Amino acid sequence: NDRQPPNTGLDVSTKKIKLGVAIVGSESSWRAANTESIKNAAGQDVGIDLMMQNAEGSQDKQIEIIRRFIQQKVDVIAFTPIVETGWEQVLTETKAAGIPVILTDRKVKVEDDSLWTTFIGSDFVEEGRRAARWLVEHKAADSGVTNVLELQGTAGSAPAIERKQGFEEVLSLSSGFRVLDSEIGDFTYESGQALMSKAISLGKIPQVVFAHNDDMALGAIKAIEKAGLKPGKEIVVLSVDATKLAFQAMQAGKLNMSVECNPLLGPQIIKAVKDLAAGKEIPVNIITAEGIFSQDTAKRDISTRKY
Ligand code: GYE
């Protein structure tokens, strides 16, 4: 056949896609499940050559990792932006290098949205609203105002900004609730415990705690117990993620509810990577469908929980 292309020595069909992944850190059990999910999905695909780096909670470090991926000429970069802002420069560099960027789990705020290709993750505003809706439905005070303490995730991160926004949006429609304080943590168990202990020691004991993730809620539960109070009863505790540890706390009656945030994004990320590498068009937003969980069903749900 004289129409065969010249042999360049490069077999395109067996060339692996070099994927650079820059994860946020190791702050929570959600993150551990998310990291595992990406590793597993990449590991199961012979077409993917995964390079994964941990930014350990530092934006500067994450930017360095992305720059190294550019030097290493990866085909696709997937990263979870620690905070929303400050990405223009490095994303301009990835664009100039012709490397498509996938945002996994957290979003960025940049003026030029052509700096990234797709976002794969959850609707954090809706998660905040779900927690507030549950509260309004289940814990309407008999009289007076119910005071809420909010424990925020990492300052400037998309989940902290948006969960706060959604939660307060719904609560503000109901006169029975007031966010007494909204303290900034960092999605860790330790920060939840420290912020709750501080509130208690200042005598600011709320009737409700809304933590932006399970780890912080579990830390807060610890602090409530240390102060001789009953979490889940004397102080209602709500959180987001719905990890296995949260189900255990719900079963024990210490956590009242958790809004689901699915960390198992690996398969969707790998699919997007392959589509991009193949030059296919992909959706701008790939949003995960999620629900809420409370004590009534925790016992049943825990048996099938994967994270
Ligand atoms: O809820 C929290 C984690 O970005 C959605 O980060 C993620 C959040 C998650 O540390 O547990």
Automatic annotation (TrEMBL):
Q: Any idea where the Periplasmic binding protein domain is?
A: 20-281
Q: Where in the cell is it found?
A: Cell envelope
Write out the similarity annotation.
Answer: Belongs to the bacterial solute-binding protein 2 family.
Mind telling me what this protein is named?
Answer: Substrate-binding domain-containing protein
